[in-house]
Each structure stands twice: as structure tokens, then as C-alpha cells.
Specification:
- This protein is mostly loops and 109 residues long.
- The chain has two helices and four strands, in the order αββββα.
Length: 109
């Protein structure tokens, strides 16, 4: 059998155009694509904090993702996890039924 090409970890560098974050649990580099001129993907951008002066924080509406601290106000306006306004025709619990017999108007009895 012919010798296979060396793996990225064997050479100590990630594949070209891929994230430079080493995932110890998987014993390999992250395979996500990075933006031009960047070293890490968006998921592992926190690992590059020493290279970047901007600080990322957890989104207060949805802790599953992070945002830059200086862009938090802009993010809160467009975050998909924000409370959306109800339409004008929406009435809370319109079909829920009566909660108590005392609520029945006398005309219906």
C-alpha cells in the first residue's frame, strides 16, 4: 500500500483556508472555512481574542450565539430570538373558553 499524504495535524498546520482551532476531543483541526485574511472561523473567533481587540459576549436574548459587545444594540434590533410584535387582530386567549362561571354574562344564561 502506498503511503498516504500527511494529515494537517501531523504537519502542525490546518488545511489551507480552514479554521486554525485545534479540537482536542476530535484530535484534529476545525474544518470550517474562514473569511479572507482570518485565522479562525466564526465559531472559534473567541480563540483569537488576543489577536483582536473586540470582545464577544453572549446574546442576552439567545445564549446559543455570541455578538461583538460594540454591536450589541444593533444586534438586539435584528436578532431572530427577539419578541416580535403581535398583529392588530390578535387577542390573547380568545378561544380558551370561560375561566369561571362567574364570568358568564347574564344575557347568555
Amino acid at each position: 500500500m502506498a503511503a498516504s499524504a500527511p494529515t494537517p495535524h501531523a504537519t502542525g498546520f490546518p488545511a489551507e483556508g480552514r479554521c486554525g482551532y485545534y479540537v482536542a476531543k476530535k484530535k484534529r483541526f476545525c474544518r470550517m472555512v474562514v473569511a479572507t485574511g482570518k485565522r479562525f472561523c466564526g465559531e472559534h473567533a473567541g480563540a483569537a481574542e488576543e489577536e483582536n481587540a473586540r470582545k464577544r459576549i453572549v446574546c442576552p436574548l439567545d445564549p446559543k450565539h455570541t455578538v461583538y459587545e460594540d454591536q450589541l444594540a444593533k444586534h438586539l434590533k435584528k436578532c431572530n430570538s427577539r419578541e416580535k410584535p403581535k398583529p392588530d387582530f390578535f387577542i390573547q386567549d380568545i378561544n380558551a373558553g370561560l375561566k369561571d362561571e362567574a364570568d358568564i354574562p347574564e344575557q347568555l344564561v
